Amino acid sequence: MKYNIPRGTFDILPKDSYKWQFVMDSFRKVASRFGYEEITTPIFEVAELFERSSGESSDVVQKEMYRFSDRKERTFALRPEGTAPVVRSYVENHLDVLSSRTKLFYIGPMFRYDRPQAGRYRQFYQYGIEFIGSDNPYYDAEVIAIEMLWLKELGLKNLRLELNSVGCATCAADYEAALREFFRPNLDKLCPDCAKRFDIKPRRLLDCKVPSCKPFRSGAPAQLDYLDAHCKEHFAKVCDTLTAMDIAYTINPSIVRGLDYYTNTAFEVIYDGLGAQNSLAGGGRYNGLIEQIGGKSIPAIGFAGGFERLLIALEQEGIQLGTRPVPDAYLICLGDKARAGIMPYLNALRQKDVYVDYDPDKSSLKALFKAADTSGARFALIVGDSELEAKQVNLKNLQTGEQVSLPLDGGEAVVQVLKS
To answer: 335-385 pLDDT, tens per residue?
Structure first.
């Protein structure tokens, strides 16, 4: 029987894996420059964690979560996003005891049952930043700066930072009351999901993806007009700090984010070459989330983005992401004694961080040199029975044809040439 990959998933093949490693490693390096440390959480958690944090009326909880029960009838979910698991770990492991400020980043697979399309999958790989411990607007700007610096260092140019404030719980209540008044006359014309959102979370009406609902939100009230004095001041300081960091931004009052835990700053990083799915990353403050899932009242801010869309954007701009690994040398062994006796030498080279390719199934000189050329190696190490007896190895430059004889010592002589 032939098996196929599940719909909405994909294999990362060897021809592409080095690109993924390159962008992941580059993200780790940039995050580390700002003092952020990596955290890894399980790919599944109790389902209630996401129901409480994301909001029971959210599309993530209502339509997209992969739930399952174990043998003890406990309900779990494959993680649909990374913030709630990180916060759960922060609370459970008492990370606040170690420092008043906690800087974390993560990389890993997430899962949502969604309609697959370019850059959007049911298993997708996400990176994220979480700062926990201060309401200072500087940290809003800092986490944004991490994303913008990283993307620019990768080489992306068609980027746009969009910024909004969704307010605190107090001013958000006034805003949602204004939204209900705005949408009420057309409530019967909205999709069934929006009819539910009207009572539970009216700001989600602004984020509905159903085409027939979009015309009815034109001219809707903006959250920025309903911010209280503290929220206005916080947002103004975020904007001022971004300006001081020379990070350009555009105010977009329609950014609401899809999860319930967001407060105050909300932002998205847009890449204009991706069509409808043009958001590379997004995030914001979630000052109430830690207390909501059993911790103290500690402010926090973070963001997340997907590697899939990022790689599409990088490919569109023709940006090279490292190079596919090729051997430093290809070992050509001729003769039974040579093949048996060369093993310690081959192992010694690899222990010295030399990538040596070797195929014991090939025995003809022509086939071996063809394999060496195909491998992309610059050098061939040639050893026959006579060379082994003389404790010599021939090192041939496959690009110039130049060949030298070197001692078959512990590999030092060859390493010196290969690394020069």
So the answer is: 989 999 999 999 999 999 999 999 999 888 999 999 999 999 999 999 999
Please, are residues 265 and 285 in contact by the beta-carbon 8 Å criterion? yes
Note whether 417 and 411 are within 8 A (CB). no
Q: Angle 85-269-122 (CA atoms, 0-180°, nearest 5)?
A: 50
Domain boundaries defined on the chain: 14-168+228-316, 329-418
Helix (H, G, I), strand (E, B) or coil at 69: strand
Query: By C-alpha distance, which of 109, 104, 100, 45 is closest to 74?
Result: 45
**Tens digit of pLDDT for each residue in 302-338?**
999 999 999 999 999 999 998 899 999 999 999 989 9
* Two tokens, residue 354: 């030399």
The superfamily in CATH containing domain 329-418 is Anticodon-binding domain (3.40.50.800)
Residue 381: Cβ within 10 Å count? 29
DSSP-based three-state secondary structure for 260? coil
Nearest alpha-carbon partner for 169 in 53, 50, 288, 59: 288
Structure tokens of 318?
A: 């023709």
The backbone torsions φ and ψ at residue 41, rounded to the nearest 5 degrees and listed phi first, read -115, 165
105: left (phi over 0), alpha (psi -120 to 50) or beta: beta
14-168+228-316 shares its CATH topology with 329-418? no
> Measured between alpha carbons, how far apart are the two ends of the chain, in Å?
52
DSSP 117: B
- Please give the structure tokens belonging to residue 247: 């990070």
- The structure's pTM equals 0.87
Amino acid 131 reads: F
Instruction: For domain 14-168+228-316, give the CATH superfamily.
Output: Bira Bifunctional Protein; Domain 2 (3.30.930.10)
Q: In what order do the strands lie in the sheet with 356-358?
A: 356-358, 329-334, 379-384, 392-397, 403-407
